[in-house]
Design a protein that fits this description.
Homooctamer. Dimer of tetramers. It is an enzyme of class 5 (isomerase). Involved in the biosynthesis of isoprenoids. Catalyzes the 1,3-allylic rearrangement of the homoallylic substrate isopentenyl (IPP) to its allylic isomer, dimethylallyl diphosphate (DMAPP). It is found in: Cytoplasm. The chain is α/β, with parallel strands linked by helices. The chain has one domain (4-351): Aldolase class I (TIM Barrel), CATH 3.20.20. The chain has helices at residues 3-17, 73-86, 96-100, 104-116, 136-146, 157-162, 173-183, 199-207, 223-233, 237-245, 253-261, 276-284, 294-302, 304-323, 330-334, 342-351; strands spanning 30-32, 49-51, 54-56, 60-62, 89-91, 122-127, 150-155, 188-192, 212-214, 267-270, 289-292, 338-340. A hairpin with a 2-residue loop joins strand 2 (49-51) and strand 3. Helix 2 (73-86) crosses helix 13 (294-302), helix 2 crosses helix 14 and helix 13 (294-302) crosses helix 14 (304-323). The chain starts with a helix and ends with a helix.
Length: 353
């Protein structure tokens, strides 16, 4: 099995077996102001929202996780079937393996998502570093692979810096993102992979014409930590140490959400989102939706029903937050009152000096 595909299998194994979680999202410092007299019926609250022109039942995204190895087909099938049944959005992991490796079993790990989710909002995924090698036709091939409704371009340069075999040439990526955003047949989302997007970077992406930003901030799964484990396994002790040093690096998700929504009108908040209350806080901070990845991985291994069960739990948690803030709709939740405390407040104050 080629290196790119094997790496995908390694990633899933490490996430399931090792400690690859960090704290510090900032959501703990965000408090929604309680409404003691909501004057609405909880069960009549409208949790639907629009994301890039697609109507969703919930402001929830099953974040890009995997694909590119036959062992991941079961996971993506369960996630996509659940997205179809609950009408939430879903992304696939990097499609580099599907574009570069001629293997029907490997390709199925991606194509299965549209096969089982004909109506779901699905987005594809390519790396910014790969845009230096691909032309727009290659990215269109990734769109066609899953009949994608949008295409994510992921930024993962810290992860690449820790990988012994990583691609550390980041020159020219913004120009390539702008080119793809202007020419691709579907909307383009630029997403980080656990280290956040600052206001300044969000402005550059907005000016490049991207349709949405997924901040994927600090505070959830640490890809630096994952690559540290991989480096240790192959005896790359220097990269292992760098991975450990930077495992908590980045812009906290709550900060990144506030900064990105200040300059772009379509933002997904991900990175350590672990509950429907976190989703509610993300929306209150201005996001169109909240995205989760690792919490779905275990249920996906159990099957579709377990994924649906988690989504229904998240939905009830979200609906409860809306009820006790008097928010009858997602739009009303987006304008609800909140308070920012602690380290997150200090961080924001320092950033706005």
């Amino acid at each position: 099995m080629p290196e790119t595909s094997d790496r995908k299998d390694d990633h899933i194994r490490i996430i399931e077996e090792e400690d690859v979680e960090t704290g510090g999202t900032g959501f703990g410092d965000v408090e929604l102001v309680h409404e003691a007299l909501p004057e609405i019926h909880r069960d009549e609250i409208d949790t639907s929202t629009s994301l890039m022109g697609h109507e969703l039942a919930l402001p929830i995204v099953i974040e890009s996780m995997t694909g590119g190895h036959p062992n991941t087909t079961k996971i993506n099938r369960a996630l996509a079937e659940a997205a179809q049944r609950t009408n939430v959005a879903m992304g696939v992991g990097s499609q580099r393996a599907g574009l570069e490796i001629d293997d029907p079993a490997l390709l199925e790990s991606y194509t299965v998502v549209r096969d089982v989710a004909p109506d779901a909002f699905l987005y594809g995924n390519v790396g910014a570093a790969q845009l230096l090698e691909y032309d727009v036709a290659d990215v269109e091939q990734a769109v066609e692979m899953i009949d994608a409704d949008a295409m994510a371009i992921h930024l993962n340069f810290l992860q690449e810096a820790v990988q012994p075999e990583g691609d550390v040439d980041a020159r020219g990526c913004l120009a390539e993102i702008e080119r793809v955003a202007s020419e691709l047949s579907v909307p383009v989302v630029v997403k980080e992979t656990g280290n956040g997007i600052s206001r300044e970077t969000a402005v550059r992406l907005r000016d490049a014409g991207v349709d949405a930003i997924d901040v994927a901030g600090k505070g959830g799964t640490t890809w630096s930590g994952i690559e540290s484990y991989r480096a240790a396994a192959v005896g790359a002790t220097r990269q292992e140490g760098v991975g450990r040093l930077y495992r908590a690096w980045g812009v906290p998700t709550a900060v990144s959400t506030l900064e990105a929504t200040d300059v772009h009108d379509c933002v997904v908040a991900s990175g350590g989102v672990r509950s429907g209350l976190d989703v509610a806080k993300a929306v209150a901070l201005g996001a169109q939706a909240g995205g989760l990845a690792k919490p779905f991985l275990g249920p996906a291994g159990q099957g579709t029903d377990a994924v649906v069960d988690l989504i229904e739990t998240l939905a009830l948690e979200l609906r409860t937050a809306m009820f006790v803030t008097g928010s009858a709709s997602v739009d009303e939740l987006r304008s609800t009152e909140y308070v920012v405390l602690g380290r997150t407040k200090e961080y924001l104050n320092q950033r706005t000096r």
